[in-house]
TrEMBL record:
Classification via PANTHER family: NADH-QUINONE OXIDOREDUCTASE, E SUBUNIT, POTENTIAL NAD-REDUCING HYDROGENASE SUBUNIT
Species annotation: Stutzerimonas zhaodongensis
Keyword Magnesium (UniProt): no
Binding site for [2Fe-2S] cluster: 87, 92, 128, 132
Protein name: NADH-quinone oxidoreductase subunit E
Cofactor note: Binds 1 [2Fe-2S] cluster.
Record's keyword terms, sorted: 2Fe-2S, Iron, Iron-sulfur, Metal-binding
Family, per entry: Belongs to the complex I 24 kDa subunit family.
Pfam families to which the protein is assigned, alphabetical: 2Fe-2S_thioredx
Cofactor: [2Fe-2S] cluster
Length: 164
């Protein structure tokens, strides 16, 4: 499903949330499916929607916020056109991902966890990509890359940008 852009207006976000909530009404354990549906359609779970979700599910706002913040995959704003994730878990740490992260932050001019202002790239942490034997690991636009270094990551990004 297409990711909607940051231009998506708050009223439109609420309209999407109302549709999702109506479609899941009465379903047991609906919170996570609702959050995933909203993120699939909006590219994020905007914090403004949490009170509406809490009210529909008879939960407190703190409970909904707790679930959203517990799962790293939920985001408060839509991702950039390209998403580069660097694994920060133990095996990748032991193979130097902290230094690689710092090098990439410097080369991209972008701190981990942020998106470039022009919306071209999000740089994110991820915690184990299931490919520990080939650490350090990265995922670019959903594609896994093992034993990466900064030079390779920059080349992969340039290749993706040339395809865009
Ligand atoms: S720790 Fe990085 S892929 Fe498992």
């Amino acid at each position: 499903m297409a990711i909607l852009s940051q231009r998506f207006a708050p009223e439109q976000c609420q309209a999407v949330a109302r549709e999702v909530l109506a479609a899941r009404r009465g379903q047991p354990g609906a919170l996570l499916p609702i959050l995933h549906d909203i993120q699939d359609r909006l590219g994020a779970v905007p914090p403004d929607l949490l009170p509406m979700i809490a009210e529909e599910l008879c939960l407190s706002r703190a409970e909904v916020h707790g679930v959203v913040s517990f799962y790293h995959d939920f985001r408060a704003s839509p991702p950039g056109r390209h998403v580069l994730k660097l694994c920060q878990a133990e095996a990748c740490q032991s193979m130097g991902v902290k230094a690689l992260t710092a090098e990439m932050e410097q080369k991209l001019g972008l701190p981990l966890g942020e998106t470039l202002e022009d919306g071209s790239l999000s740089f994110e942490a991820v915690y184990c990509l299931g490919n520990c034997a080939c650490a350090p690991n990265a995922m670019l636009n959903g594609e896994l890359h093992g034993r990466v270094d900064a030079q390779e990551l920059l080349a992969l990004l340039a290749e993706q940008e040339s395809r865009a």
